[in-house]
Design brief:
single chain; mainly alpha; 2 domains; 5 helices; about 85% helix
């Protein structure tokens, strides 16, 4: 019953994503992950600071490193071998940093939730983004 109510609220909330969309999505994500991981209030108090810290790190990495690599990929066919080598090094540094961040995130998560909940988080993240994309595509189609 709880899952049905949440799913209904999820789609109602997402359908109005144009108004404060990032804030609403964030609230829905918090509710969804908390429910999917069956977090107690004590676990949630310890989980969310760790999750938010690492989410911020990933976003900063994406903004600072990935954006630079991605922008240079547009002209990849015209790069010299030396420029391509530099781009490849930047790409590999970005990927390595992501792995390092993920390993640290898992290490910290293990101090607040169980390994099973960590894997449930991975599934919840995947499912949440899938639902979000599906709802976005549905909203976009209905407006056209």
């Amino acid at each position: 019953m709880k899952a049905i109510i949440f799913t209904l609220l999820f789609f109602i909330g997402i359908s109005s994503y144009a108004q404060d969309d990032s804030e609403k999505i964030e609230q829905l994500k918090i509710a969804y992950f908390t429910d999917e991981l069956n977090l107690t209030s004590k676990e949630a108090k310890r989980f969310w600071p760790v999750y938010n810290k690492h989410d911020k790190l990933y976003n900063e990495l994406k903004e600072n490193k990935w954006k630079n690599v991605k922008s240079r990929l547009k002209d990849v066919k015209s790069l010299s071998d030396s420029e391509a080598e530099d781009l490849l090094e930047d790409y590999m540094a970005y990927k390595k940093q992501r792995v390092d961040y993920r390993e640290e995130f898992i290490k910290e998560l293990k101090t607040v939730i169980s390994p099973k909940q960590i894997m449930m988080l991975k599934k919840a993240e995947y499912d949440f983004h899938k639902k979000l994309l599906k709802q976005y595509q549905s909203d976009k189609t209905s407006k056209n």
